[in-house]
Design a protein that fits this description.
With 663 residues, the protein is mainly beta. The protein has five helices and 38 strands. The strands form eight sheets. It has a 22-stranded antiparallel β-barrel. The chain is globular and about 80 Å long. It starts with a helix and ends with a strand.
């Protein structure tokens, strides 16, 4: 009842406080680099002079790549897909039972953004925002966004973000995402917090540009090891165990945690600047830039008393902690010419320190070191050029000294056939060492100690992608990837491994043969009057000598929905049903010690439908969401696993809102 009162209060407040704005969303290059020759608009002037009107176009969101989108307060089916814990479309993901617990991958991509390894624990850090995911803002007046959604038992999800400026040239943002969900099953509580503050600045003469952010993030998860009697207590549908806290689990005293802090600065100064005639557009410019990035991050697994589920232990109390500190500096020069395009070149230095607070000598005398550290030197290059309707982009990162990084090259070309059709082709190739937890790991559990830093080779990935983006025919993407030295976790033992004991024998492995992956994805929406059918279908095929990469062959999502203005256009309503299905396959298992998925080929899972019913509405700048998730759970069979021994969630009703208001 208290949540309903909260929603009603927010709706009433949004009607009274929020300003009417023009709802529009489109992309342009970073407008901070080309300031308008107008004075900053004072909100008081707007009230006194009807000729001064603020629109959505005055509230800009700037990505890491310096692409700019306007604030979008519309209600669309894509907004429905992104209204979740991650705030992104999770079509290619399969969530665990509790929100934020872990996400198994239904689709895979091998294009890398960074040329250096990460800490690891990839099953747990999807909510950990990397620097490429941070947005910056340029707003005319202070703007606030509140995101709220209910969770599963004793918790909520709240994402609050405030953006403001002191002038048109200096903007700030402060945001915090707080989350807690107890979950339906025992010992699956999840908590996370993400604090992000940003600033961007453009000098009055347009020569100096700065953007920076500070991020402090943590993700805490209780771990129960999965269901210990799944056949009798889950798959049977026994009414005595529909109350999920009655279901037995393997662990009751284990947890893991990710915590990180990052300080990021990117600034440039234009030494030479030649304008074209008397306009604000530049003909030629030469800039010097500097990028600074310092981050500390750790992953920790804690267990009060060791469990045979993971094998023998050195000490009865488990406290494993891997720490990574990185320091990155880049100095670059950028030359821009209206005819020749934009060319950037630079040098960088990367310092890393990955360590544990112990050193292990094994029974055979082999020593597991406590740290991997060093310094890498590299060069970077970028090129961009637009000729008519043709766009070309390329970037290169090349390591000239060091053991971890390799090379990274991306190239893309796109052509606007007409206003409704666009072609785009992309090429990616990269090589680097696997993540640190594959190279070196230490644990109180004997089997979880290894040093592969001098054994493993660099992973090499290459892919070619073609896309057709059409408002008439839909969006088609075809991508073919090759992987060499593919690295993964899997159970390894000379003896037969008993059921549910795979976690006692997990090791990092590297595939010597090439793995090839084909991915075809098609999106198309059909509309008839107020009704629409939105479809997304993905096909995958893997060619491999050894079964090390497991993905479903088919994934589909289909949404039939109705949209219309109601109450004399005071509200916009959208309601419908979403169907999601993926074919059965050897779904990856989950390991709570590492916070990683591992390859298993004993059990096929999947092949079950997921049905959601939703009613969404928009009143001015407020969007309200109500969803009955997985409403077919009770009558379609209890076989809906997200990983071996880890079920997906049962039927649940959740609601929330997204509210934008302006000062």
């Amino acid at each position: 009842m208290k949540y309903i009162i909260l929603v009603l209060f927010c709706l009433i407040a949004s009607v009274g406080i929020s300003q009417d704005v023009i709802e529009k969303s489109e992309k342009e290059r970073d407008s901070l680099l080309r300031p308008k020759k107008t004075k900053p608009i004072n909100p008081k002037d707007k009230l006194q002079n009807d000729s001064i009107v603020l629109t959505i176009e005055d509230y800009k969101i700037i990505s890491f790549e310096r692409d700019t989108t306007f604030l979008d307060t519309t209600l669309t089916i894509k907004k429905e897909y992104k209204y979740n814990y991650l705030r992104e479309d999770d079509f290619e993901l399969m969530p665990f039972g509790n929100i934020g617990q872990a996400y198994n991958e239904l689709g895979v991509d091998f294009e890398r953004v960074a040329s250096y390894p990460s800490l690891g624990a990839k099953a747990k850090d999807r909510k950990y925002l990397e620097k490429e995911q941070i947005n910056y803002y340029n707003v005319a007046t202070p703007m606030t966004e509140l995101f709220f959604k209910t969770t599963l038992e004793q918790g909520q999800l709240l994402d609050a973000n405030l953006t403001f400026n002191t002038s048109r040239r200096l903007n700030f943002s402060i945001g915090y995402t707080g989350f807690r969900s107890l979950g339906k099953y025992n010992d699956t509580q999840i908590e996370s917090g993400n604090f992000i503050t940003t600033t961007n600045y453009l000098s009055k003469n347009g020569r100096y540009v700065l953007r920076a952010h500070i991020a402090a993030q943590n993700i805490f998860s209780e771990e129960n090891g999965g269901l210990s009697d799944k056949e009798e207590q889950f798959e049977s549908g026994d009414e005595d165990f529909i109350n999920r806290p009655r279901v037995d689990v393997y662990l009751d005293d284990a947890s893991n945690k990710i915590l990180g802090k990052r300080y990021y600065l990117d600034h440039t100064y234009k030494l030479v600047r030649t304008q074209l005639d008397s306009t604000r557009f530049e003909k030629t410019s030469l800039s010097l830039g500097h990028i600074f990035d310092y981050e500390t991050k750790y992953y920790q697994f804690v267990e009060t008393v060791s469990d045979t589920l993971f094998g023998d232990a050195i000490l009865s109390t488990i406290d494993d902690k891997a720490i990574l500190k990185t320091f990155y500096n880049e100095v670059n020069a950028e030359f821009y010419n209206r005819t020749l395009g934009k060319l950037t070149g630079g040098v960088n230095v990367y310092n890393y320190d990955y360590y544990f607070n112990s050193r292990l000598t094994q029974a055979d005398g082999a020593v597991i070191p406590s740290r991997l550290n060093g310094t890498e030197f590299g060069i970077v290059g970028r090129y961009e050029k637009r000729i008519g309707e043709f766009d070309f982009k390329a970037d290169l990162k090349y390591n000239i000294s060091g053991e971890l990084a390799g090379n990274l090259f991306n190239a893309s070309a796109s052509y606007n056939i007409n206003k409704k059709n666009k072609l785009r082709f992309s090429l990616h190739t990269s090589s680097r060492m696997p993540n640190f937890n594959y190279l070196l790991y230490q644990s109180e559990y004997l089997n979880y100690n290894w040093n592969n830093s001098e054994v493993f080779e660099k992973e090499r990935a290459s892919s070619l992608k073609g896309e057709l983006l059409s408002k008439t025919w839909g969006n088609l993407m075809v991508k073919y990837s090759n992987l060499d030295n593919y690295t993964y976790f899997a159970p390894v033992s000379d003896a037969t491994i008993e059921d549910d004991m795979e976690n006692a024998f997990i090791k990092p492995l590297q595939e010597s043969n090439t793995v090839s992956h084909l991915k075809v994805k098609y999106e198309k929406e059909f509309k008839v009057g107020m009704f629409a059918l939105n479809n997304t279908v993905m096909y995958q095929n893997v060619t491999q000598d050894t079964q090390v990469l497991n993905v479903p062959q088919l994934v589909t999502r289909n949404t039939l929905y109705f949209s219309s203005d109601v109450f004399k256009k005071a509200m916009y309503l959208q309601t419908g049903i979403t169907f999601k299905y993926f074919s059965s396959y050897n779904m990856n298992g989950y390991n709570p010690i590492l916070g990683e998925f591992y390859v298993q080929n004993k059990e096929e899972l999947g092949g079950y439908p997921l049905l959601d019913f939703f009613i969404n509405a928009r009143i001015k700048q407020t969007r309200v969401y109500l969803k009955a998730e997985h409403f077919n759970a009770a009558f379609s069979g209890y076989d809906y696993y997200a990983a071996p021994n880890y079920p997906y969630r049962d039927f649940v009703i959740r609601f929330g809102l997204v509210w934008n208001f302006f000062s």
